[in-house]
Design goal:
The protein has 133 residues and is mainly beta. The protein has one helix at 7-10; strands spanning 25-29, 33-35, 43-45, 56-63, 75-80, 91-92, 97-102, 108-110, 112-116, 125-126, 130-132.
Length: 133
């Protein structure tokens, strides 16, 4: 039997275990922040100050428990702590991500929150406080 490999030896050869990561929450990235999966906060960087009255993009991602982007087409709504802000219409994610245009309407420090309107079991997320000048 020299040189022969038994069937039990090759049964699992060449196979990788695929892990399906479920979509459990949203992630809000402000300008100046970058996604960083598998970290405690899921992002790096600090938000850039925004000019009052000037639109900027907020990135919203569908993510798993450790901040990896997960494909989803759920619809998301955007809210902010700036009561004078201009907000985008609700829109569907594409491949688990979407940029939403927000315009702060007054000076101060504000947050932006993304909420899944398709599936209320997904955890909403509030982005880092961002200055509006």
């Amino acid at each position: 039997m020299h040189g022969l490999v038994s069937q039990s030896t090759i049964t699992n050869a060449g196979f990788y275990r695929l892990i399906k990561r479920p979509f459990v929450k949203l992630q809000v990235l402000m300008p100046g922040e970058t996604a960083a999966p598998n970290t405690p906060t899921g992002k790096t960087g600090t938000p850039d100050a925004q000019a009052v009255g000037m639109p900027f993009n907020v990135t919203v991602n569908a993510v798993d428990e450790v901040w990896n982007v997960v494909p989803s087409t759920d619809t998301v709504t955007i809210t902010t702590s700036d009561s004078t802000a201009s907000l985008p219409a609700d829109a569907a994610l594409s491949g688990g991500t979407r940029a939403f245009s927000v315009t702060f309407g007054s000076t101060g420090t504000f947050t932006v929150t993304a909420t899944d309107v398709t599936d209320a079991t997904k955890t909403a997320n509030t982005g880092s406080p961002t200055a509006a000048q």
